[in-house]
């Protein structure tokens, strides 16, 4: 599943990076192509669910009985996903979790809708719910703990009445991104091991023949639980991964998020990380090129009398980190959440979010004859190096030293004394070079 669903909210695997306050966008409309009624045979799934018992799964609160997720993407990177999923409730804790489901999406890029909801009793009786009557769209609060409010970061929360132990809960969901995050490219991750046992799952990608998945990896593999196949139908290449009888993952103290260490599938149309580096360099360059004479004068003033690059770097860093407040509104349209403001705007306003401050620091270092570049960072767990993507959530700056190595700097914190804070040590980062 692309998203891990919980009662409290939706944890999005597909990261929408570099967030801060953004301008809410108009709601995106569903794809024009009608969705099929279902992807799974409900009668067959109900029969399979009879074998899902507490005796067979003594440590599980719920079990993913069957899921079929089909994603079709276009050559421009836009995509539509259909997700047909059945979960069986085994315990009281599972019942409480199943009473509410949350599905997250980023309205700046796409949307989602619940197409069908059923609660199926052990007797086989099916109660179908009108999704519009049991669900509500709202702004997600998942980032507010980090002092970030993004009205485009949304979730649809569905409240299910009458769920009991032994019930089978069915959701059929369609999600889409009509505005690609990285034009001409698609990347995704599916979790194939979780705290819930997985009896059966299928993840299918319908790919344009002229824009195939160039990077594919099944990571932290549980031998014998997942098979894959590929076939061609007309101008499409269909790649399928099928999981069967995948045991549950048991969280341990201090363990990283399970979707970063458990069995997972990553796919991408990108061939290597250099493509991502060049993409972000190209995206930021027009904004870096707006440096003004006033900015250059400020650099000259704060570096006056300093004789070494190290001294000049620290002086310029101190100005950007301490004199430019961390706040802002995103107005960019090409890649909202990734694209910085023009550096002259950040300089004049004296505020910006991480990507704005990082870009300003690049421009001011360059004005001081210090070669520097924007840097994409993932502030959480390390990214999987095997498959390139744009799953970064932070932006910082790199200056190239005389020996060719990079000096990394995070100017986000207004009270920092360090060029790079401890929490960004040993993280995945990518320097954006032409």
Structure at a glance:
The protein is α+β, with helices and mostly antiparallel strands. It is built from 9 helices and 22 strands.
Annotated CATH topology of the largest domain: Immunoglobulin-like
Tell me the radius of gyration. Answer: 24 Å
DSSP helical segment count: 9
> How many individual β-strands?
22
What percent of residues are in strands? 25-35%
Largest sheet: 8 strands, mixed
Uncertain residue ranges: 2-27
How many individual domains?
A: 2
**CATH-defined architecture of the largest domain:** Sandwich
- First CA to last CA: what distance? 35 Å
Oligomer class? single chain
Roughly what is the average pLDDT, rounded to an integer? Answer: 90
Percent of residues in helices: 10-25%
Structure characterization notes:
- About 20% of the residues lie in helices and about 35% in strands.
- The chain is an alpha+beta fold and about 425 residues long.
- It has 2 domains: about 5-270, Immunoglobulin-like; about 275-430, C8orf32 fold (Roll).
- The strands form 6 sheets. Strands 7-6-10-4-3-12-15-14 form an 8-stranded mixed β-sheet.
- Mean pLDDT is about 90; it is low at about 1-25.
């Amino acid at each position: 599943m692309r998203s891990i669903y919980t009662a409290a909210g939706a944890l999005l695997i597909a990261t929408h990076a570099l967030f801060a306050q953004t301008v809410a966008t108009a709601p995106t409309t569903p794809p024009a192509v009608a969705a099929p009624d279902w992807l799974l045979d409900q009668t067959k799934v109900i029969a399979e669910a009879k074998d899902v018992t507490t005796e067979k799964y003594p440590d599980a609160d719920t079990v993913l009985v069957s899921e079929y997720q089909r994603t079709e993407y276009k050559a421009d990177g836009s995509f539509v996903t259909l997700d047909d999923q059945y979960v069986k409730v085994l315990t009281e804790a599972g019942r409480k979790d199943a009473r509410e489901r949350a599905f997250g999406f980023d309205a700046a890029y796409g949307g989602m809708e619940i197409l069908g909801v059923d609660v199926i009793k052990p007797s086989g009786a099916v109660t179908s719910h009108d999704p519009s009557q049991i669900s509500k769209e709202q702004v997600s609060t998942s980032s507010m703990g980090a002092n970030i409010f993004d009205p485009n970061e949304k979730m649809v929360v569905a409240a299910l009445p009458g769920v009991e132990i032994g019930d089978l809960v069915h959701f059929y969901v369609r999600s889409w991104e009509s505005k690609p995050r990285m034009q001409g490219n698609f990347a995704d991750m599916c979790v194939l091991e979780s705290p819930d046992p997985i009896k059966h799952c299928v993840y299918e990608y319908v790919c344009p023949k002229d824009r195939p998945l160039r990077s594919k990896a099944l990571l932290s593999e549980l031998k014998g639980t997942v098979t894959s196949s590929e076939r061609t139908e007309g101008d499409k290449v269909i790649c399928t991964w099928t999981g069967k009888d995948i045991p549950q993952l048991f969280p341990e103290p201090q363990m990283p998020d399970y979707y970063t260490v458990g069995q997972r599938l990553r796919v991408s149309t990108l061939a290597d990380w250099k493509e991502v580096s060049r993409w972000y360099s190209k995206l930021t360059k027009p904004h870096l090129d707006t440096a003004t004479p006033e900015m250059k004068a400020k650099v000259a003033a704060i570096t006056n009398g300093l004789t070494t690059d190290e001294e000049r770097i620290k002086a310029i860093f101190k100005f950007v980190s301490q004199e430019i407040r961390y706040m802002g509104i995103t107005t960019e349209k090409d890649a909202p959440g990734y694209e910085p403001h023009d550096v002259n705007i950040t300089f004049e306003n004296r505020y910006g979010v991480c990507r704005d401050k990082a870009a300003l620091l690049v421009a001011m270092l360059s004005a001081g004859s210090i070669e520097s570049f924007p840097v994409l960072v993932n502030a959480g767990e390390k990214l999987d190096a095997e498959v390139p993507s744009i799953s970064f959530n932070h932006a910082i700056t790199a200056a190239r030293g005389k020996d060719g190595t990079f000096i990394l700097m995070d100017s986000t914190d207004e009270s920092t004394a360090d060029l790079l804070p401890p929490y960004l040590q040993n993280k995945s980062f990518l320097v954006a070079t032409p």
